[in-house]
Write a structure and sequence with these properties.
The protein is of the alpha+beta class. It folds into two domains: about 240 residues, BirA Bifunctional Protein, domain 2, CATH 3.30.930; about 80 residues, Enolase-like, domain 1 (2-Layer Sandwich), CATH 3.30.390. The protein is about 35% helix and about 25% strand. An eight-stranded mixed β-sheet has the order 7-8-9-10-6-2-1-11, with helices on both faces. A three-stranded mixed β-sheet has the order 4-3-5. Strands 12-13-14 form a three-stranded antiparallel β-sheet, with helices on one face. A hairpin with a 2-residue loop joins strand 9 and strand 10. Helix 1 crosses helix 9 and helix 12 packs across helix 13.
């Protein structure tokens, strides 16, 4: 394993460095990468940004908003939150299960005296409260799986900045974001800062890792990625698609919301939103749905014309077709 140190606090550059480490360094082993961000909201790849944030509050508090490459839901970062990233430059390996990445963190926390446990598809809890959410993306260079660790985050700001849908909170059995999360510092009285926490976690997870530094040229390449993607308002906020139908359902892989433009009972366009995970770009699904009749049989045939299971292996084509056609 390699470890790449990092003291940068800019969320756009941290996401760009993570992307560049995967695509540009040509390393032959797993890489561990930590980062701490100044106050920011990091929205999931497929989410409708405006729906996920309290925009007036975010602007008033000067909280930066950035879209990441991975799926999943929106998260709040500040100087009390530690982000960890396991980067696997192995494009031909299947996407690992979340447990492959959360278990080392859970073991480390338990060694430090924290009663951490995995919950659901991608969370880590302590005594029933969430301290970590995880997400991943996979491309032709390999896989990135990254997560948060709430050490001493301002949970009041977190609760006011995020705007989760009521049905998501209901599915978690809680009434608010604030009641669902907690910080780790109360369980680690001997650790005073997020940086100290990072160093202790590093010693537990990767004490034998080989340290490599990003060069000036590497950082310049990462800055270029940040400028092109993560600092681009169109990437983060997108555009408001025209639509005549809206469909929303929570599947086992997360919520999927569709904005569908229909004319003469033919799908002219469809846009996916949600906190779902998939290991491939969804453009081929959109291409398959365009031009289809808004009818379950026709949509099922359209989805079967592509390798549907490569995107959503736990959802049957006819079930998704009925969801698109009927919204149930």
């Amino acid at each position: 394993m390699y470890f790449i140190p990092n003291e940068n606090l800019d969320p756009t550059l941290n996401l760009a460095m993570e992307q560049y480490i995967l695509s540009g360094l040509n390393l032959d082993e797993e890489i561990l990468f930590f980062f701490i961000d100044r106050p920011s909201i990091i929205v999931g790849r497929h989410q409708n940004t405006i729906d996920e944030i309290n925009l007036d509050y975010v602007k008033a508090q000067d909280i930066q908003v950035v879209r990441r490459l991975s799926g999943g839901g929106s998260v709040y970062h500040d100087l009390g939150n530690l982000c960890f990233s396991f980067i696997l430059p192995f494009p031909n390996q299947p996407v690992p299960d979340f447990s492959s990445f959360t278990e080392p963190v859970i073991r480390a926390l338990r060694t430090m005296g924290v009663p951490a446990e995995k919950s659901g598809r991608n969370d880590i809890l302590v005594e029933g409260a969430k301290i970590s959410g995880n997400a991943y993306y996979h491309n032709k260079f390999g896989t990135v799986c990254h997560g948060t660790l709430l050490f001493n985050t301002d949970l009041t700001v977190l609760a006011r900045a995020l705007n989760p849908k009521p049905e998501k909170l209901s599915a978690k059995g809680v009434q608010s974001v604030r009641s669902r999360v907690t910080n780790l510092n109360g369980y680690l009285p001997g650790i005073k800062t997020t940086v100290e926490f990072r160093e202790r976690l590093l010693s537990e997870i990767a004490r034998d890792a080989k340290t490599i530094e990003l060069s000036d040229a590497d950082l310049a390449n990462a800055e270029g990625i940040a400028d092109e993607r993560y600092r681009n308002p169109l990437w983060t906020f997108g555009t408001s698609p025209k639509y005549t139908l809206k469909r929303t359902r929570r599947f086992p892989i997360g919520e999927i919301e569709l904005r569908i433009e229909v004319r003469d009972n033919i799908i002219r366009d469809v846009v996916f939103f949600g906190d779902f995970f998939t290991s491939q770009e969804i453009d081929p699904i959109v291409d398959a749905l365009r031009g289809s009749e808004l009818e379950t049989g026709a949509l099922t045939a359209a989805l079967r014309s592509i390798d549907w299971k490569a995107w959503f292996p736990t959802i049957q084509e006819e079930d998704f077709a009925a969801f698109v056609a009927q919204g149930d």
